[in-house]
Amino acid sequence: MDLHDLTAAYALDALDADETEAYERHLAQCEQCREQLAELNETAGALAFGAVAPAPPARLRSAILEGAAAERTNVVPLLRRRWVARGLAVAAAVAACVVVGFVVWAARPGPKHVVAVVKVGPDRRATLTVTGLPDAPHGKIYEAWVIPARTGKPRPAGLFPGPGGIVHLRGALPRHAVVAVTVERAPGVPAPTTRPIITAYT
Amino acid sequence: MSRQLAHLSDEALVLLAARSEDSALAELYDRYGRTAYGLALRVLRDPALAEDAVQDAFLAVWRTAAKFVPERGKASTWILTLVHRRAVDAVRREQRRRAESLDPATEPSVEGVEEDAWLRLQRERVQEALRRLPDAQREALELAYYGGFSQSELAERLGQPLGTIKSRMFSGLSRMRELLGEPGTEKSWTSTT
Description:
With 202 residues, chain A is an alpha+beta fold.
């Protein structure tokens, strides 16, 4: 099976489960396919507008908003396996590790996006990659925290001055932990004193 | 309630949704819920199943908004991809349309459907582009995207080698892309109230 040939079918959701899996593995390693897929995805998405669209019943809107409100209190977003796999494959060619979460938070008004990605290895060692932050203010530093879902208590996991970089998070990352970043007084503090500017659910 | 967000881009709304702003989710639904429902209905041919697929997809938007990467594509595409995937998964699970003919007459009628001008324009634009495709390419795209058929099922149903189906889908999408004038045609949002 030549996997390069599957891009259009993938964009149309016309692969079966095995083919999808094989293609996503391929996608993680093939920049050319990722670029082509980005284009074809937009076109496939345009097909959605070609269907006749009667108004959905009003209860659908309220069901969605109620469902969302009910889930807001959950710390851990339970991602569907298939979507995780696809997100992974598309997000980056990442070797032998799992990207489990990233959250974008605009640190201050402005068009710049802060992107943080947490990657967890099979041994639960994790790195936090951040881009787009401004330099920490004078006398301050960015401090990363790991918040285990079980205890909810932040533990210090690393320091960086900005504007970004890779932080090797101290200790193993428990499942469903939250990784957060705050601005703290240099050279770092034992417990966070400010609101997180980045919160990544893993 | 969400009208105050009407000036924001889709992508900005997704970022807000990632921060648990439910008014941003409401606004995204107000922009794309109808298209999402129409798409799910077209694939599933069943209003209850279509509602389920749309609800499921928008809750996935809510849960995974933080994973959306604006550099990778438009937010509307991302949302509608989530909807489409759920609809296709459901139709394959249900085996519903296996029993149906491929008669295009089963497409829901546009009559009696009131919709705003922007949606109608989009639909006409896409349908016109589809009409301009060679028949074999149009057939492959429609059966795959709206019918939820996998490429192997298509090959079997149409009695063509798999390679032929693949190349029809690829040529069809590429041609559609040209016809729709992408990537230059940003779909600008206009308030419908």
